[in-house]
Amino acid sequence: MTDTEARTARLTWVKDADPRWDADRERVFATVPEGVFRAEARTPGERLSSDWWRVVDGERVVGYGWLDDVWGDAEILLAVEEPARGTGAGEFALARLEDEAAARGLNYVVNVVRDTHPDRATVTEWFLAHGFTRTEDGAMWKRVGDRTRGIGQHQDGRPGTGKAELPDEAHRARYAAARERAAARPYADDAPAGGSDLGPGHEESGGYVDPENHRF
């Protein structure tokens, strides 16, 4: 077993039943470079949108995965604290987000790498190496919903690394329209847990990759 495999074996994937802004999120997201996410102040205890999972190494939270259902797709986000980058924690989170989406019967996982990302080219290459395909708007797509297909699908029970099959133009347009509507809705603090309209920091998604070894 390699050092990376040994470290990954220690990681656990923990669902947040009531995701709120807390000290662990503050610590992890504070290590993400400026420009990866939209900067927006958060209040301790503030409720966050959609579905969140913690990546835990022993007793320490080292990262997060976020998933939002949009028109039969799953928009995803990953964040790993700086000391844990290059350890395989990003791959661990990505694989589990793909599994979560596939288990719901969703078609694709989608990640949008923002223009302001300081390592945009590296992030894009990382997603391409993990079976994603890029569209002109910078969105990275991977099909996970149909496990009978051999391209870009699960292999040996884990998400595959084959090249993804892109959704058609109409499908992508529906996703983009739904995403714009969600971003335009006001935030309500009394919304049901995990069900408000804003993503983490009301940012566009796009996780951070450590340039070394193309790992989160």
TrEMBL record:
PROSITE patterns: GNAT. Residues 148-216 are annotated as: Disordered. SUPFAM superfamilies: Acyl-CoA N-acyltransferases (Nat). Signal peptide: none annotated. Residues 165-183, 200-216 have a biased composition (Basic and acidic residues). Residues 4-150 form the N-acetyltransferase domain. Pfam families: Acetyltransf_1. Residues 184-193 have a biased composition (Low complexity). This is N-acetyltransferase domain-containing protein.
